[in-house]
Design goal:
Layout: E1 14-17, E2 20-21, E3 27-31, E4 34-38, E5 46-54, E6 58-68, H1 94-112, E7 137-145, E8 148-154, E9 161-163, H2 172-188, E10 201-209, E11 216-223, H3 230-237, E12 243-251, E13 262-268, E14 272-276, E15 279-283, H4 293-307, E16 314-318, H5 324-329, E17 335-340, H6 343-355, E18 361-365, H7 368-377, E19 384-387, H8 396-405, E20 409-414, H9 417-427, E21 431-438, E22 450-456
Helix pairs in contact: 1-9, 2-3, 7-8
């Protein structure tokens, strides 16, 4: 995988031996005693590189060619621009990707040194059933430049849009739908947003497909509300295979997020239904759900296994989202109480309880740090707890609350090995870490996901 965008063409070629992979999947070596990061290079390889950026404590390099190739190197997918994000490990054999993801958490534990970390049981990464075409949601940007439209993803850390006729981690149906929508936009001359001139128009096309039913939900994210012939476009999109709904999400140029706050249905169903471990979940356009439904079943099965629930227990589902984990656990416990800060997600969770005929789960809106002590003061038994926080991990305030409330057992579902290890430094003051199980949710990328079981230490 050779990227072609060298910032400083005056730099001379240098020869580097790659020692290991960094947390973002880049090769790491040393040049004149300074660390250098080279995307696309693998451990054990001797490569020719160019320095493209210099920093006080490290260098950024560009891979020019490989002098000595690793036996773990595989061919990069044909027809795909290697500069695109989301394929950082596609040149590494899949078994080695799994080893790398186990290594990521081990390295994070060594860095932060939580109590007794050397004794932690860190299991081998569970592989995904499909290493390719697993993503059921495509979120592509569209722009009009030099007389033609382009649809795809931005290169990492830039506004340079890379056209993507093929993205091998996306399901074929979501990709095909994206390309067909682009054709309709071109045919109907629908206005495309122009970030250079700040003109209104369509800026992003989101296509999500239910793995359970095959139904497809389309959202057109627009700058501005009134886009000429947008309803005509939506009516044509509804004729595409498996499309059951089209939405418009309105945002503004000053919003740094992809999505705006206002979403309206143009045609079709309000939700699509996804199914995980026999339970059904409504998905509105903005509802968070894992991007790899097949492997989500594995991730949540592991979480439930390590909770080791009993019928007399009360389970607290923190960061409850749309209620997925709590609803999946509801058959195994007396009561589930879910806590979620986003009001819309609480409504979705309540609707999902109704959809699955779950009567022993309650979802409340608020902050976990505030509500957990209140629940305990009300006499609610906090027997078991599950947390599934964002990449930033648990706040220090929440960790302090957990150490005060002291649930006997809790499971931490993490998507960031560094913040997990950092949080374990404080949590291990009162808890023993029984097991850490990495689960590969996003093959071909360095993204990490894992399940950790913690048990209250008896002498505390």
């Amino acid at each position: 995988m050779l990227t072609k965008f060298i910032k400083n063409k005056q730099e001379k070629d240098i020869i580097i031996t790659i020692k290991r992979l960094g947390i973002n999947g880049e090769g790491i070596g040393y040049y004149k005693k300074k660390i250098i990061f080279i995307p696309g290079a693998l451990p054990g390889e001797v490569v020719v590189a160019k320095i493209i950026d210099r920093h006080p404590h490290y260098l950024e390099g560009e891979l020019v060619r490989i002098k000595e190739k690793s036996p773990d190197r595989v061919a990069f997918p044909k027809g795909v621009n290697p500069a695109v994000g989301g394929l950082e490990l596609a040149h590494l054999s899949y078994p080695k990707q799994l080893e790398f993801k186990q290594h990521l958490i081990l390295e994070s534990l060594r860095k932060y040194h939580p109590r007794d970390y050397i004794k932690y049981k860190v299991k081998k990464t569970i592989s995904a059933p499909n290493a390719w075409h697993y993503r059921n949601k495509a979120q592509y940007q569209i722009e009009f430049n030099k007389g033609k439209s382009k649809l795809g993803l931005y290169a990492p850390n830039s506004r340079r849009l890379i056209d993507l006729p093929e993205m091998p981690t996306q399901t074929k149906e979501t990709q095909k739908t994206e390309r067909e929508i682009k054709k309709l936009i071109d045919k109907l001359h629908i206005r495309i947003a122009d970030f250079r001139r700040h003109n209104d128009g369509i800026k992003t096309i989101v296509v999500r497909q239910s793995h359970a039913s095959g139904e497809i939900q389309v959202t057109l994210i627009t700058i501005g509300k009134k886009i000429r012939d947008l309803k005509l476009l939506a009516s044509q999109i509804m004729k595409l295979p498996n499309v059951v709904s089209v939405f418009q999400n309105e945002t503004q140029w000053q919003n740094p997020q992809v999505w705006g706050n206002k979403t309206i249905k143009l045609f079709g169903k309000s939700h699509i239904i996804e199914e995980i471990l026999g339970k059904k979940f409504k998905l509105s356009p903005r509802a968070f759900f894992q991007l790899n439904p097949e492997q989500t079943s594995t991730l949540y099965s592991e979480a439930l296994k390590y909770l080791d629930l009993t019928p007399d227990q009360t389970l607290i589902d923190a960061y409850a989202g749309v209620g997925t984990l709590g609803i999946l656990a509801s058959d195994q416990v007396r009561q589930v109480i879910g806590i979620e800060s986003i009001p819309e997600a609480v409504i979705d969770a309540q609707e999902n309880c109704h959809l699955n005929h779950v009567r022993n789960a309650e979802y409340i809106q608020g902050n976990v740090e505030k509500l957990l002590p209140e629940l305990k003061n009300q006499g609610v038994p906090i027997d078991a707890l599950i947390v599934d926080p964002p990449r930033t991990g648990l706040s220090k305030k929440l960790i302090k609350t957990l150490l005060e409330v002291k649930p006997e057992t809790f499971v931490y579902v993490s998507c960031n090995p560094a913040t997990l290890a950092k949080d374990l430094v404080l949590l291990s003051e009162a808890y023993d870490v029984r097991v850490i199980q990495p689960v590969d949710m996003m093959p071909q990328t360095p993204r990490w996901e894992g399940v950790t079981k913690l048990v209250l230490r008896k002498n505390k």
